[in-house]
């Protein structure tokens, strides 16, 4: 039983991290109608900045909020410098810019911080387990608490605040939004900022687990996208659900079939996605849009 | 001071000029109507004014030239626009749609009053408040679109063919609400219509356009008495 729980919580914690990256992809996807591939790289870039702060002696409790602020500004900057100029261009041009950003930020991280592994601390000593359980470490618990808080906070922001309402409206009808006097372009810029912050949270949580270098997010990005596809590429809830279930599924398979090779993980993930998409092309939580004339 | 005036307005759609040197005025407190057949350039005029299409010429609103402004800034200056397909936020609730209308406003008390005003105009919306707006019927969505612009508290309302695709009874209700909005809520209206007899019924001043040019203008009486208009648009021979 303990080994089962250990696997389950491992899957859940990893899934929670994927989920926050998925969430940051989906909330931009909703408004841009295009996937921002650079989201993972932005997360790495912000996390490397955080690592730099911590290594230079800034206390972690201060470095983390500083990193989040940095991530927000970074998101705004990316939008202003690279996306806004092609805002009215065709989808293919925009897509190229987004792919360019993915490669560009990856390269920039490499140039600025070098190819080596960087230090990013765990929030708690690695061996600490609350109540002496042997399946869920305090660090994993911390990840779950942070991500739950993030998702709860985001849900509240999205559902019950005026700015959240405007972002949802923007996702549905940008022209109508500007007819309500809203500067759609600026709203999208804020959206980039918010997405970058969520991505940075994912980055900082994953950094101590994997080795923090400029390629840290490449594998995670694939799972995050997989989660988006499974749950529904336009549904924030679906993305979170998709990412977590993929991760749990992956670990559970290796719990029951321990003799399987680890490298089959990706194959398994994508087989499931293909099957789901055959029966539900929009993903599990795609909504039917009703419109009457 | 000029309330609203378009001077030598040219509008372009997909690199083609569709509106040619059009001049018209809307007086404060009036319903002004622009009539014309399909493809005459009516919608383009509005889209041009509001900054969705490329345009040349001057557009004056409350003494200020708004022709170089971006859409959201024109809206902020006090113009509202109900576009042809009503611009409903389909997946938001009716209440959230109305809330989007008052997005820019800070006067909470007045917003509440306007909401009550909207419910007296369109009681059906109050019943459907928490329903997804996309599930409303076409007529209800048109009401919602008008209600949302009331929530914006504009000085001038631009409306694009509110009669499009609606049942005759609903059209009547919508048109009488347009007149009421103008008289009671003090919102001047620029109404684009194909349905000439209806528009002549509520408008104070009318322009007729054909292939992007104004061919006739005057009070509704001028139009009702014009033999060629009767023949071409009112079905009277």
Chart the SSEs and their pairings.
The complex is a heterodimer of chains A (293) and B (237).
Chain A: H1 2-32, H2 39-55, H3 60-83, H4 91-113, H5 138-160, H6 162-172, H7 174-179, H8 184-206, H9 218-231, H10 236-256, H11 265-279
Helix pairs in contact in A: 1-5, 1-8, 1-9, 1-10, 2-3, 2-4, 2-8, 3-8, 5-6, 9-10, 9-11
Chain B: E1 4-13, E2 16-26, E3 31-35, H1 42-50, E4 54-61, E5 64-65, H2 71-76, E6 79-82, H3 94-101, H4 108-121, H5 123-127, H6 138-152, E7 156-160, H7 168-184, E8 188-193, H8 196-202, E9 205-210, E10 213-218, H9 220-225, H10 227-233
Helix pairs in contact in B: 3-6, 6-7
Outline the structure in words.
The complex is a heterodimer of chains A (293) and B (237). Chain A contains eleven helices and no strands. Chain A has 293 residues and is mostly helical. In chain A, helix 1 packs antiparallel against helix 10 and helix 2 runs parallel beside helix 4. The model of chain A has no long low-confidence stretch (mean pLDDT 89). With 237 residues, chain B is an alpha/beta fold. Chain B is 40% helix and 27% strand. In chain B, the strands form two sheets. Chain B has a six-stranded mixed beta sheet, with helices on both faces. In chain B, strands 2-1-4-5 form a four-stranded antiparallel beta sheet, with helices on one face. The longest helix of chain B is centred in the last third of the chain and has 17 residues. Chains A and B meet through helix 6 and helix 7 of A and helix 2, helix 3 and helix 6 of B.
């Amino acid at each position: 039983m303990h080994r089962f729980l250990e696997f389950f919580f491992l899957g859940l914690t990893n899934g929670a991290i994927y989920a926050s990256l998925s969430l940051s992809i989906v909330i931009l996807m909703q408004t841009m109608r295009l996937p921002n591939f650079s989201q993972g790289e932005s997360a790495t870039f912000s996390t490397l900045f955080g690592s730099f702060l911590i290594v230079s002696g800034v206390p972690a409790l201060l470095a983390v909020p500083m990193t989040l602020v940095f991530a927000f500004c970074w998101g705004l900057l990316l939008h202003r410098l690279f996306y806004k100029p092609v805002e009215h261009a065709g989808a293919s041009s925009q897509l190229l810019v987004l792919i360019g950003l993915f490669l560009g930020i990856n390269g920039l991280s490499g140039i600025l911080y070098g190819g080596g592994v960087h230090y990013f601390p765990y929030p708690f000593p690695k061996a600490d387990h609350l109540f002496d359980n042997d399946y869920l470490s305090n660090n994993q618990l911390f990840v779950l608490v942070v991500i739950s808080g993030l998702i709860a906070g985001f849900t509240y922001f999205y559902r019950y605040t005026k700015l959240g309402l405007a972002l949802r409206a923007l996702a549905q009808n940008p022209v109508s939004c500007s007819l309500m006097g809203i500067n759609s372009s600026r709203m999208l810029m804020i959206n980039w900022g918010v997405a970058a912050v969520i991505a940075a949270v994912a980055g900082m949580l994953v950094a101590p687990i994997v080795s923090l270098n400029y390629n840290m997010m490449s594998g995670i990005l694939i799972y995050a996208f997989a989660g988006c596809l499974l749950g529904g590429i336009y549904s924030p809830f679906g993305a979170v659900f998709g990412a977590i279930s993929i991760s749990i599924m992956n670990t559970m398979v290796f719990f029951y079939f321990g003799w399987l090779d680890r490298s089959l993980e990706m194959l398994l993930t994508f087989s499931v996605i293909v099957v789901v998409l055959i029966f539900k092309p929009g993903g599990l939580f795609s909504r039917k849009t009703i419109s009457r004339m | 001071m000029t309330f609203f005036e378009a001077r030598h307005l040219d509008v372009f759609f997909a690199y083609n000029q569709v509106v040619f040197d059009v001049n018209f005025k809307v007086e404060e407190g009036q319903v002004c109507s622009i009539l014309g057949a399909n493809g005459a350039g009516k919608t383009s005029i509005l889209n041009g004014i509001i900054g969705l299409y490329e345009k040349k010429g001057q557009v004056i609103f409350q003494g200020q030239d708004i022709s170089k402004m971006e859409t959201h800034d024109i809206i902020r200056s006090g113009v509202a626009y109900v576009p042809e397909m009503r611009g409903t936020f389909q997946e938001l609730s009716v209440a959230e749609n109305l809330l989007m209308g008052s997005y820019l406003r800070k006067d909470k008390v007045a917003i509440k009053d306007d909401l009550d005003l909207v419910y007296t105009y369109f009681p059906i919306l109050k019943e459907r408040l928490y329903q997804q707006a996309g599930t409303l019927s076409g007529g209800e969505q048109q009401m919602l679109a008008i209600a949302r612009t009331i929530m914006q508290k504009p000085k001038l309302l631009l409306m694009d063919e509110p009669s499009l695709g609606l049942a005759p009874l609903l059209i009547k209700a919508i048109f009488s609400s347009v007149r009421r909005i103008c008289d009671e809520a003090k919102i001047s209206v620029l109404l684009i219509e194909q349905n000439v007899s209806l528009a002549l019924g509520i408008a104070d001043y009318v322009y007729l356009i054909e292939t992007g040019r104004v061919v006739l203008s005057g009070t509704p009486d001028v139009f009702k008495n014009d033999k060629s208009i009767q023949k071409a648009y009112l079905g009277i021979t």
